Amino acid sequence: MQAQGKNNGATRRVASVKPLQVRGRFFTAIALHLTGRADQAFFDALDEKLLQTPLFFENAPLVLDLEESQGLGGPRDLADLAEALRARRLSVFGVQNGTAEQAEAAIAAGLVVLPPGGGRSVPLERVSRDHSPRDPKQALAAAAAEPLPTTRLITQPVRSGQTIFADRGDLIIIGPVSSGAEIIASGNIHVYGRLRGRALAGVNGDTTARIFCNALDAELLAIAGLYTTSEALAADTPRQFVQVFLEDEKLRVETLK
Amino acid sequence: MSKVIVVTSGKGGVGKTTSSAAISAGLAMRGHKTVVIDFDVGLRNLDMIMGCERRVVFDFINVIQGDAKLKQALIKDRRLENLYVLPTSQTRDKDALTKEGVKKVLDELREDFDYIVCDSPAGIERGAHLAMYYADEAVVVTNPEVSSVRDSDRVLGLLNSKTFLAEKGDGSNVKAQLLLTRFDPARSAKGEMMSVQDVLEILAIPLLGIIPESTTVLKASNEGTPVILDETSGAAKAYMDAVGRLVGEQIEMKVTSGDQRRGFLQRLLGRTA
């Protein structure tokens, strides 16, 4: 108990023994798809979106997806765009799916060029382990011991202010999810109770992820980064025993039959 | 085996101090040796509700900082044999509370008392956190109103994660129960106020009691008497039942009306009792 009170001292002590630690870590980033030049119309649309849910974007790391933005090529274009986004408090840090020319411009603008296709990354320790086993038997044993993408099960109500994150698979909640709570999964989300908070499924880009719940009263629903707020849901949206999924880049809410 | 019970809510003005006073007095009336501690450092309301503000010499912070002995700071209630008050400081702020200090005082109190009731300040900052940190049980005071329910929900999340029992990680948890205060059955029936079912559905914890809105509560507070001692009050009856449930008795849940019905004769004469 004493140690808890002197937490700072303890970490300092540890730090003096071991100056640094390297760990692989998952982070969820928002991808911003550009479909043309970053002109006034683009910024108007962006501002409107930001106005709808200002907190959702605040300080969230952001990646620019340049797949459909051939128009954006000049060496200054990306730097200007990044600056304009940062002025809107969007923490843009990288680009993805750009041309070689765009990648060069991104690096010049101080942005990171991320590998194309999705954003799934693997924890560092697993990468290093994959290289080590020489004996196939040993490798098999190692594979068996290694936890597979796991489901996270929560059997208590998720309260306002809590965040539950299943970074490697599905998230199952038995109990209600209060408004002001946040449940996030790289896979599907199941809520056996009333969902009042925010639910974000497929946060690593899995567009097949779904959200299931007994009763839908969510503040925000998101699948693979596509989101909708409770206000934006149509009044005739089904509310009991529903699933939420992506269809043609749109969130759909349907009653489970 | 002594028990530390925190009375908490998140939101201010819902009746934490009133409930702390009533519950601790109720426990003492049942013969349990009880102490009630004011954790609201800097505001100091509990001693007024308990009617002992003029007897405060040393306080909780003095004890934590070693300036006074616990026995010097404890104030014995004049009405109830088994009831003690540990007042807080008006001149210090919440930074004077430390985890070690609170633990030391609570450990010492555990040797002498059956029940230690911690009256939490509003909010979820240091004072509220330390009030709940060493608790075995929690009474979550909530008004039938959306912001109060939201804040109580937040506090329940903290009770499940930021307390000594939760941090131990052996699956033990602070046992939390709901005390619904300022409830008006008539307004709830008309839909002007959340119903008991609405609140329970959101918070999903056992119901300890329903305290009706009553004019006797304010009157008792002004007089410095825990409302539970006012026999004419419907709120007192409801607190008595809640205390019974708190010590593990099975008592049927009734929604009492706030003020006792006037007698037949008095009604005829049109006079208030």
UniProtKB/TrEMBL annotation, chain B:
NCBIfam families: minD_bact. ATP binds at residues 11-18. GO terms for molecular function: ATP binding; ATP hydrolysis activity. The keyword Ubl conjugation does not apply. GO terms for biological process: division septum assembly; negative regulation of cell division. Residues 3-149 form the AAA domain. The keyword Cell cycle applies. Interacts with MinC and FtsZ. The gene is minD. It comes from Paracoccus limosus. InterPro entries: AAA_dom, MinD, MinD_FleN, P-loop_NTPase, ParA/MinD_ATPase. CDD domains: MinD (cd02036). Gene3D superfamilies: P-loop containing nucleotide triphosphate hydrolases. Belongs to the ParA family. MinD subfamily. It comes from the Bacteria. This is Septum site-determining protein MinD. Keywords: ATP-binding, Cell cycle, Cell division, Nucleotide-binding, Septation. ATPase required for the correct placement of the division site. Cell division inhibitors MinC and MinD act in concert to form an inhibitor capable of blocking formation of the polar Z ring septums. Rapidly oscillates between the poles of the cell to destabilize FtsZ filaments that have formed before they mature into polar Z rings. One of its GO terms (cellular component) is cytosol.
